[in-house]
Amino acid sequence: MTASLVSSACWSRPTSPSTSPTPAWTGSPSCPGPINQRLPKVLKAPEGHTYAWTENPLGINGYYLVSKGEKTPYRLKLRSASYNNIQALVELLPGTLVADMVAILGSMFFVVGDIDK
Predict the structure, then answer these.
(1) Secondary structure (DSSP) of 40-96
(2) Is the pTM of this model over 0.85?
(3) What's the gap between Cα 116 and its chain centre?
(4) Contact at 8 Å (CB) between 62 and 81?
(5) 54: nearest Cα among 85, 16, 23
(6) Tens digits of pLDDT across the chain (117 residues)
């Protein structure tokens, strides 16, 4: 997918750092076409690559899609919010006591199944 495809889908990213990191549906008249429509069983992505993200209760999930224009994508990489949350342990754990690790790990919310890639 190309940047023009993403922009034609009418998604906009907040530009100022003070805005919320959630993706925003513009819903503007510049987005032609039907919005509520049945999709075919097989979606063929156009040739190219794109990155998209969504927000969920754990944080932000990232999706990277590479397509060669075939029925299935060439590559689809997912970066879950749990993986990002675990990266904070590098900063939190050095110098702490082993007994404190239980409280630190208990205060962080992550899904172990998301982390083992």
Answers:
(1) PSS--PPSEEEEEEEEETTEEEEEEEEE-SSSS-SEEEEE-HHHHHHTTHHHHSTT-
(2) no
(3) 17
(4) no
(5) 23
(6) 444 444 444 444 444 444 444 444 444 556 666 777 787 888 788 899 999 999 988 888 899 999 998 888 899 898 888 888 888 888 888 999 999 988 888 888 888 887 776
